[in-house]
Amino acid sequence: MKIVIVDDNLSMRKVLSALFESHGHQVVAALEDGSKLSECVKQHQPDLVCLDYNLPGRNGLELLAELHSSSPDIDVIMLTGSNDPDLVGRAANAGASGFLHKPFSQPQILEELKHVGENRRMIARTAGGESAPQVPGHSKRTAVIVDDSGSIRLLLKGILQEIGLNVLQTVGDGLEGVEAVKKHLPDIVTLDVDMPRMSGLDALPLIMQASPLSKVVMVTGNPNKAFAETALAGGAKGYILKPLRPAYVEAFMKKLLG
Known about the structure:
By secondary structure, the chain is α/β, with parallel strands linked by helices. It has ten helices and ten strands. The chain has a five-stranded parallel sheet with strand order 2-1-3-4-5, sandwiched between helices.
């Protein structure tokens, strides 16, 4: 992968650069702040950005949101030494593909890279139109995916197809999600929480009213107690966490489908 590192600590930039290059990746730039990140991305078109949260000027979350909006195909691993308990969830909801607390070990960063690589391969197969093999007994089960992130939609579609679900439609906000469920009456609905126009929690009761037999699974980066209670009370069967990990999502869905 082509990688850009953004961290104000020179030693961290050197350590990460050496680690990535020793494992066959190409570090195309190592920046001390985010002021030139947009220009760097346009020039080098990286696959991955390792982005520190605590940066001079604009913080990592602001840069992440901007990057995800302009270049959603680029994965971002957030790095931080902050103790803010909500930061992981906010970063995941903003589009982060991974998250590491400093100090972290070499195996931890390599594990995150492994997950990013697996997700990218799944998305590439899905975008390329490759079909997963049909699983006996599951060919008639259907799904609708509701998420404002195009990369998440592709990843979820690939995962659900791997376990034999027929993904009938993928949409980008809650209002479209309600209409898609009314149209298809699917067995499974994956429903993002933070979306434009209508959030997942606002769409949930309308979806349950339109298709009471659909099993709705919420998708979120920040599962606090109040959210869980609201989702379960509204009819959701549970939730899966961002950043998505295909093995976990597959196991969750197989258990849900029995």
